[in-house]
Amino acid sequence: MRVVLLSLVIQEFLTLGHSASSHLIPPVILVPGDGGCQIEARVDSTFTNTHPHCHLKPHQWVNVWFESGFIVAPKDEDFRCWLDYIALVYNNTTRHTTSQPGVETRVPGFGNTTTVETLNPELTSFISFRYLADMVEALVHTLGYQRGHTVRAAPYDFRKAPNEQAEYLTRLQTLIEDTYQSTGGRRVVLAAHSLGGSLVLYFLTHQPQEWKDRYLEALVTLSGAWGGGVKAVKVYAAGDNLGSTYIDPLKIRAEQRSTPSLAFLLPSRDLWSPEEVIVTTKTNNYTAHSFREFLGSLKLPDAYNMYLDTRDLLKGAPPPGVPIYCLYGVGIPTVEKLTYTDEDSFPNHPTLTYGDGDGTLNIRSAELCKKWVGKQKEPVVVKAFPKVEHMEIVTSRKIINYFLDLLKGIMERNEEEWRKRSPDYDGGKPGESMCQAKHKR
């Protein structure tokens, strides 16, 4: 029934021509989460090739996230080459990261949805490489959105935390303004997943309210990583295989440890108390207030510096200042403590204790948006979805339908505003469509 009704609405819009529909559909800009877009790399003549079989030729751009040989046919030498291309180097003087010497990376597809729909352009049919494709296809086929026009994306270098995203945030602002203009002055809906939610919140805290009121219709967050999570601690200790049986978490761990975004996602001191132990060994207990000692035990001084750089980026952040729909999953076992029963198991083989969450984010982090209720004049809608996992939230038909209904409601409000402003349709009854009002004449 929902699909039929939406199809009828779209058919009516299409009979009015492109001008009317462009004024009704709220444009959407997607902001992906950690690992949610393609990254390309190339090397120059100064690159020191420590692995003779590495296949990158100078000045040739190749996709390294996800690179098919790394995922589909992993070998030790493939991992070592890949690490040279994608791992970051931290400078404790500038407090910023760069690629390995002789390596340049870029994030393709800014403004379009191609590189967030699938993560490997050569393997688009593989379900494991599809990311936001289902959501984009639903927008296009159900509500009549157009890729690159009314639905766009703002991919970014997810390895880096907000403090290293100044250029990106400027581009995001320009993309929002350009999209607003190109769609006839329609305010933009930002839809952000996971780390993308935190990045957008950081962006909004640096925008004047007048700008937000003019350009933004709403913010929809899917499993927003508001306060980090214990899983980041587990990644530092033992790595994460990204849900793939092909990947050895201990091999990929070096790349993960090199990223400031991982430090940014460590559990917030505002949500975890000094008394709450999240890592316990035979000789030590570690909390969210003792990451200096924990990261020191892993011999990761750069990681601790990254943590110092990022831990307060959202501390005391105000509400976003736009209507927000905060959606997240619950009821999925989510790591909340690491235990090491003997010295030999540290750090590679923890015993994990689980609590509530979405499998990645602990529930206390995902539901942090509840504190904004009543703290801003704009609506704050918080909705938990039982048994929806952190990555499933962007593919779940239940979530996608909720998003479509939200956009449909905005379209109906836009239709009513358009009807009131248009002399051709003056006199229509409230709730009456433009076509109905026109056909009465």
Description:
It is a single chain. The protein has 441 residues and is α/β, with parallel strands linked by helices. Helices cover 36% and strands 16% of the residues. It has a six-stranded parallel beta sheet. Strands 11-10-13-14 form a four-stranded mixed beta sheet. The chain has a three-stranded antiparallel beta sheet with strand order 3-2-6, covered by helices on one side. α13 (291-297) runs antiparallel to α14 (301-310). The longest helix has 25 residues, at 397-421. The protein starts with a helix and ends with a helix.
In short:
This protein is of the alpha/beta class and 441 residues long.
What is the topology, as strand order, of the major beta sheet? 7-1-8-9-12-15
Total DSSP E strands? 15
Overall outline: globular
SSE-based structural type: alpha/beta
List the domain count as a whole number.
Answer: 2
Number of helices: 17
CATH class of the largest domain: Alpha Beta
Write the topology of this structure.
Layout: H1 2-15, H2 18-22, E1 28-31, E2 39-43, E3 62-65, H3 68-72, H4 76-86, E4 88-91, E5 96-99, E6 103-106, H5 114-117, H6 133-143, E7 151-153, H7 166-182, E8 188-193, H8 195-205, H9 209-215, E9 216-222, H10 230-238, H11 249-257, H12 260-264, E10 279-280, E11 285-286, H13 291-297, H14 301-310, E12 324-330, E13 334-339, E14 351-355, H15 363-366, E15 380-386, H16 397-421, H17 434-439
Parallel strand pairs: 1-7, 1-8, 8-9, 9-12, 10-13, 12-15
Antiparallel strand pairs: 2-3, 2-6, 4-5, 10-11, 13-14
Helix pairs in contact: 4-11, 10-11, 13-14
Protein name: Group XV phospholipase A2
Keywords: Signal
InterPro entries: AB_hydrolase_fold (IPR029058), LACT/PDAT_acylTrfase (IPR003386)
